[in-house]
Amino acid sequence: EVEEAAVAAVAVAVVGPVAVLGREELEKEVVQQEALLHGFQRENERLTLELRAAREAARVVEARHAAEMTRLNAERLTEADSVLRAERASEGHRSALLAAHSRADEADERRDAAEAAARREASERRELEQRLPGPDPR
């Protein structure tokens, strides 16, 4: 009796107060509704598991991405440091090269001055030799 009253209450709630289904139709409807409910529950559980798996996969990808970004930033800093050291070394080499060129230019100037002095001295010696009397014929 209690079961029949529950079925009748469900029938009134499902179909409305106007029509009351027969017991067999009502039981069949309840079975169908329970099957639908179980199907929805299974689908909900499947989707929940799928969502958890997707969130975990996203977390793993995010962690991998963060690690890769950290590695790339460290690599970039290392490369920037290498470039800076190379620029400093290059600047040192450039300074040394400029100093060497300057010393070479100074050496060229001293050589040119020495050659000019040697030419002047040779010219003066020839002039003196020409002014001096020749060897004594005696």
Largest sheet descriptor? none
Instruction: Bin the helical content.
Output: over 70%
C-alpha Rg, in Å?
54 Å
- Average per-residue pLDDT, rounded, comes to 82
The separation of the N and C termini measures: 175 Å
Number of strands: 0
**Which parts are unreliable, with pLDDT below 50 for 5 consecutive residues or more?**
none
Taken from the alpha-carbon principal axes, the silhouette is rod-shaped
| Continuous helix count | 2
* Helical/strand content category: mainly alpha
- Output the helix-strand order: HH
Secondary-structure blueprint of this entry?
Elements: H1 2-15, H2 23-131
Helix pairs in contact: 1-2
Polypeptide structure, described:
The structure is a single chain. By secondary structure, the protein is mainly α. Helices cover 89% and strands 0% of the residues. It has two helices and no strands. Helix 1 packs across helix 2 (23-131). The longest helix has 109 residues, at 23-131. It is rod-shaped, with a radius of gyration of 54 Å. The model has no long low-confidence stretch (mean pLDDT 82).
